[in-house]
């Protein structure tokens, strides 16, 4: 019963991990972290990402321009670039490690301890990937809220708002963390299901001999 639960937990954890990793990769490269609607020109919508800024016109024409310099970016965007790329790499590594530790794979079948280590290592790596996804997305969202409610900026000035990639990044981090937790729990369940070695039982005493009687004479009974 526990073994079936462990296999289901592994399948669910891998599905969530893959979904979170794909969502994290999409979040990294789409220019939808921030949206800006111009009241003076409602025919244009500005979108900003970690790598470029795009302008969508009413006719459906999209014009994108890459950020000029990495050092000229705000600190949150620079660090978010690094953390999101790190998250993508950690997510891929975690999925590979966890896949090698699944019960359906023939890898290390004769070494159940090694498969548990692979599952735990993959779960820990995916957990780090989830953290490195949630931190930059939340940081950019926090600064967006501060800038939106900044009273020193006149009301006539347009303000950036949350983009679709912000919510996708939150979901990606949550999926990665949930997948890591399920994989770690399945590894724990697998370790408890490992059969123990049979204990060594003492054979029955020889018939006709009282308990504690030795078959071989003691040294004191030997006559020289």
Question: Can I get a quick summary?
Answer:
The protein is of the alpha+beta class and 224 residues long. The protein has helices at residues 2-29, 75-100, 112-148, 164-192; strands at 34-37, 44-48, 52-57, 62-66, 161-162.
Task: Identify the overall geometry.
Answer: elongated
pLDDT < 50 stretches: 193-203, 212-224
Overall pLDDT confidence: 81
Kindly provide the radius of gyration, computed on alpha-carbon positions and rounded to a whole number of angstroms.
30 Å
SS content category: alpha+beta
Largest sheet: 5 strands, antiparallel
Distance between the termini: 66 Å
Helical content stands at 40-55%
Number of E-type strands:
5
Number of helices: 4
Give your account of this protein's structure.
- It is built from 4 helices and 5 strands, in the order αββββααβα.
- By secondary structure, it is α+β, with helices and mostly antiparallel strands.
- Strands 4-3-2-1-5 form a 5-stranded antiparallel beta sheet.
- The longest helix is centred in the middle third of the chain and has 37 residues.
- It starts with a helix and ends in a 32-residue tail after the last helix.
List keywords for this structure.
4 helices, 224 residues, alpha+beta
List strands and helices in order, with pairings.
Blueprint: H1 2-29, E1 34-37, E2 44-48, E3 52-57, E4 62-66, H2 75-100, H3 112-148, E5 161-162, H4 164-192
Antiparallel strand pairs: 1-2, 1-5, 2-3, 3-4
């Amino acid at each position: 019963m526990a073994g079936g639960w462990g296999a289901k937990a592994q399948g669910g954890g891998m599905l969530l991990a893959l979904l979170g990793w794909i969502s994290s990769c999409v979040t990294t490269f789409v220019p939808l972290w921030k949206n800006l609607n111009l009241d003076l020109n409602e025919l244009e919508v500005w979108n900003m990402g970690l790598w470029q800024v795009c302008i969508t016109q009413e006719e459906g024409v999209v014009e994108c321009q890459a950020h000029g310099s990495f050092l000229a970016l705000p600190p949150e965007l620079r660090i978010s670039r690094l953390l999101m790329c790190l998250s993508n790499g950690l997510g891929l590594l975690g999925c590979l490690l966890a896949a090698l530790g699944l019960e359906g794979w023939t890898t290390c079948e004769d070494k159940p301890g090694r498969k548990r280590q692979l599952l735990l290592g993959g779960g820990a790596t995916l957990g780090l990937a989830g953290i490195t996804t949630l931190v930059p997305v939340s940081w950019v969202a926090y600064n967006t809220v501060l800038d939106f409610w900044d009273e020193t900026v006149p009301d006539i000035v347009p303000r950036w708002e949350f983009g679709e990639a912000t919510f996708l990044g939150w979901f990606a981090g949550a999926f990665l963390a949930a997948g890591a937790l399920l994989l770690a729990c399945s590894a724990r369940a697998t370790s408890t299901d490992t059969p123990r070695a049979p204990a060594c039982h003492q054979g029955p005493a020889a018939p006709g001999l009282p308990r504690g009687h030795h078959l071989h004479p003691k040294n004191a009974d030997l006559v020289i």
